[in-house]
Write a structure and sequence with these properties.
The chain contains 13 helices and 8 strands. It is an alpha/beta fold and 341 residues long. The protein has a single domain, classed as Alpha/Beta hydrolase fold, catalytic domain (Rossmann fold), CATH 3.40.50. Helix 3 packs across helix 4 and helix 6 crosses helix 9. The protein is globular.
Length: 341
């Protein structure tokens, strides 16, 4: 038999039921500030302040000294769209242990860097920002290494600054095909923003499981997903989603595939061949979707297009070989870099 409760009693009773569920959810999926406040990076974070497009902005970065015998070389790490400088931690440890200095950068609009309300995002702009940061640190002719969107940015950086790059390392870069020319409709910024605003831990994980990891999932993949989901769910979720929508449009409309033959920098191309990443492909017909994101084919086409390129393929790995099989990837990376000295 139900008995009547005063309104205050109902509220207290409901809170008693809801609060533990909220606490449990928060414990599993943490929430972060708009600049990833609350998430600790594995190495000290530095801030580079600069002026761009009539506003003062800040880029967060880690500058990590070698722990092994110094070899005098610097590697600059460029993150992907769904990643941050922090997700390079195992690679930073591998490189610094082999004597490299490592600078890992958060681009404007991402992670611990500024989230501008009004900014014209472009790959040339992000490359210019990165060059200004490296100049401020006195870094000359580094090895530039980028993953996913960071690989796309690395190509643009090397095209703009061929004299300032000793070697380009690309890890499953996107932009190796022109999705719009292949038949993928462009999404308007408002639609892209709505999609980004609706992103959750579960939706991000489902996307990455399907396209990044060939349907497989391991517990260690959860952390970068939780980091990104925590940004969307936090108090700065709106500006985070807006910058993500802008950079999604940047990626879609600025492919680098047409300019690969113009690269004049020795290039190492690391490709996990089960990767099926193709931004926007879900908007295309099934026929178009079927031919996009075939990294088993894209890797071979790309190495033929770049004049001084070498392909290191991982037939059983996907979009993030450095995350999926770090020991295998880092052994291949250090060997390839050593052979190029």
């Amino acid at each position: 038999m139900l008995r009547s409760l005063p309104l205050a009693g109902v509220i207290v009773a409901l809170l008693g039921v809801v609060a533990p569920a909220v606490q449990a959810q928060t414990a599993v999926h943490p929430v972060y500030g708009p600049r990833l406040e609350g998430y600790d990076y594995p190495f000290p974070v530095h801030i580079y302040a600069f002026t761009s497009q009539r506003q003062t902005l800040e880029m967060a970065y880690m500058d990590v000294a070698p722990t092994g015998a110094p070899n005098g070389r610097t590697v600059v790490l460029l993150h992907g769209k769904n990643f941050c400088a922090a997700t390079w931690a195992p690679t930073i440890n591998a490189l610094t242990g082999d004597g490299y200095r490592v600078v890992a950068v958060d681009q404007v609009g991402f992670c611990k860097s500024s989230k501008p309300g009004a900014y014209q995002f472009s790959l040339p702009q992000l490359a210019a920002n990165t060059r200004a940061l490296l100049d401020s640190l006195g870094v000359e002719r580094p090895i530039v290494m980028g993953h996913s969107m960071g690989g796309m940015l690395g190509v643009r950086y090397a095209l703009q600054n061929p004299e300032a790059v000793s070697r380009l390392v690309l890890v499953n870069p996107i932009g190796l095909e022109d999705w719009q020319a292949e038949g993928v409709p462009r999404a308007g910024l408002d639609d892209a923003f709505a999609a980004e605003r609706g992103a959750t831990f579960d939706s991000i994980k489902a996307y990455q499981r399907r396209f990044y990891y060939d349907g497989d999932w391991r517990d260690r993949y959860d952390e970068p997903v939780a980091m990104l989901a925590g940004l969307y769910a936090g108090p700065g979720g709106e500006i985070v989603a807006w910058n993500q929508a802008q950079t999604s449009d940047m990626i879609f409309t600025q492919p680098v595939v047409h300019e690969l033959p113009a690269l004049r920098v020795p290039t190492l191309l690391f490709i996990g061949e089960t990767d099926r990443t193709a931004p926007g492909a879900a908007r295309a017909t099934p026929e178009v979707q079927a031919r996009l994101g075939r990294y088993d084919q894209l890797g071979r086409r790309t190495v033929e297009a770049i004049p001084q390129a070498r392909l290191i393929a991982f037939p059983d790995l996907g979009h993030s070989p450095q995350v999926e099989a770090p020991e295998v990837f880092h052994a291949a990376l250090l060997a390839a870099l050593a052979s190029a000295r």
